[in-house]
């Protein structure tokens, strides 16, 4: 009986093994593409994956409200344009934080490669890793995965998010990046101030050259026309002519009276001679003003055009001088400054990786891929021609 019982148990075990083997063969693809990746993910995230600490800081770039002295509207035209909004400056700073220049500047004050390549991290997570070479480009790609800089659209604040394998490394990298960002804002200030002064000086130089050219042109016109101020000189000539006309009218009245009352008066010829002389003088004076191309009237338009140009150039020079004074005054004040809203924190516990979530994502992804592959195979088999 004992022998029969042993044989029976051995047969039962063989049947179970055979069923198990059949079950495994039947589901080998499911086990290979779903169960195995999930087990590997569970082993990696549960036993191997290193803790990752996260440090975050927030800042805004502000511009102080400044109301400079009011200057003329023309000066407003020639003075330099105001800088863009603080949000635009924040975007420039975030672009810098994400750039290779920021990584190089960060490496001057902190051992970034050592922080990312610490032996405390697993070989798959740390830099350079089994599949990466130790080059600056690979370090920059790794830096881009561990450092994120973005603008919060709701609050308008800039966020620097740093991941590292130790709380001290995450904190120090974030703090250094925040210091570099503040230095970047200061450089933008200096560049804007220098540009403003340079533009104002250029405009002042142009205005001075314009005034000088206008004055030289006016002096040349005076020399060529032999007139200092045609309008004033024409007015003086007309005054002389009017006085002569008045005098001639008096003499003519006296002559007419004498001719009518004492036609043989010996003074009549002398009066007539004086009247003729005055008429000639009047004609000469009027000829100086009008009557030919050399008259004063023909030269007034050219003189006035040059005079107006000189006046406008002088006003432009005054406005450019005021704009330069304003630009130099603005240079003493900071246009933009970085205000820290949240200083970098020293994390006290790791936030990454989310181990359970990562395992679940791997399992769901593998299961989805398995069912997609299974449906494709079933579709191919259904449409395959029967032999």
Automatic annotation (TrEMBL):
The keyword Zinc does not apply. Residues 20-100 form the Polysaccharide chain length determinant N-terminal domain. Keywords: Cell membrane, Coiled coil, Membrane, Transmembrane, Transmembrane helix. One of its GO terms (cellular component) is plasma membrane. Pfam families: Wzz (PF02706). It is a multi-pass membrane protein. The chain crosses the membrane at residues 29-48, 356-381. GO terms for molecular function: protein tyrosine kinase activity. Signal peptide: none annotated. Residues 197-224 form a coiled coil. Its main location: membrane. It is found in: Cell membrane. PANTHER family: FERRIC ENTEROBACTIN TRANSPORT PROTEIN FEPE, TYROSINE-PROTEIN KINASE. This is Capsule biosynthesis protein. It comes from Sphingomonas populi. The lineage of its organism: Bacteria, Pseudomonadati, Pseudomonadota, Alphaproteobacteria, Sphingomonadales.
């Amino acid at each position: 009986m004992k022998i029969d019982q042993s044989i029976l148990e051995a047969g039962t075990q063989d049947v179970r093994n055979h069923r198990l083997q059949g079950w495994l063969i039947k589901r080998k693809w499911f086990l290979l593409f779903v169960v195995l990746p999930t087990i590997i993910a569970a082993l990696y995230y549960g036993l191997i994956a290193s803790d990752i600490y996260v440090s975050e800081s927030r800042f805004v770039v502000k511009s102080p409200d400044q109301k400079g002295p009011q200057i003329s509207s023309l000066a407003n035209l020639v003075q330099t344009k105001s800088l863009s909004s603080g949000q635009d400056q924040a975007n420039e700073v975030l672009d810098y934080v994400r750039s290779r220049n920021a990584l190089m500047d960060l490496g001057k004050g902190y051992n970034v490669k050592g922080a990312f390549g610490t032996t405390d991290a697993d070989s798959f997570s740390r830099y350079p890793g089994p599949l990466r070479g130790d080059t600056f480009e690979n370090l920059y790609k790794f830096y881009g995965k561990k450092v994120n800089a973005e603008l919060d659209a709701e609050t308008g604040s800039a966020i620097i998010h740093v991941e590292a394998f130790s709380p001290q490394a995450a904190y120090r990298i974030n703090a250094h990046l925040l210091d570099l960002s503040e230095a970047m804002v200061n450089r933008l200030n200096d560049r804007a101030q220098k540009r403003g002064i340079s533009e104002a000086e250029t405009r002042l130089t142009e205005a001075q050259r314009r005034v000088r050219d206008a004055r030289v042109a006016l002096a040349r016109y005076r020399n060529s026309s032999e007139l200092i101020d045609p309008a004033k000189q024409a007015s003086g000539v007309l005054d002389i002519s009017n006085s002569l006309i008045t005098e001639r009218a008096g003499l003519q009245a006296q002559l007419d009276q004498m001719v009518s009352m004492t036609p043989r008066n010996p003074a009549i010829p002398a009066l007539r001679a004086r009247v003729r002389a005055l008429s000639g003088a009047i004609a000469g004076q009027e000829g100086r003003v009008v009557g030919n191309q050399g008259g004063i009237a023909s030269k007034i338009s050219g003189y006035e055009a040059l005079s107006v140009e000189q006046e406008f150039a002088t006003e432009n020079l005054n406005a450019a001088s005021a704009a330069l004074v304003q630009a130099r005054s603005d240079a003493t004040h900071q246009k933009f400054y970085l205000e820290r809203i949240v200083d970098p924190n020293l994390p006290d516990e790791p936030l990454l990786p989310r181990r359970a979530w990562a395992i679940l994502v791997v399992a769901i992804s593998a299961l989805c891929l398995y069912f997609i592959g299974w449906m494709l195979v079933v579709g191919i088999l259904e449409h395959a021609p029967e032999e």
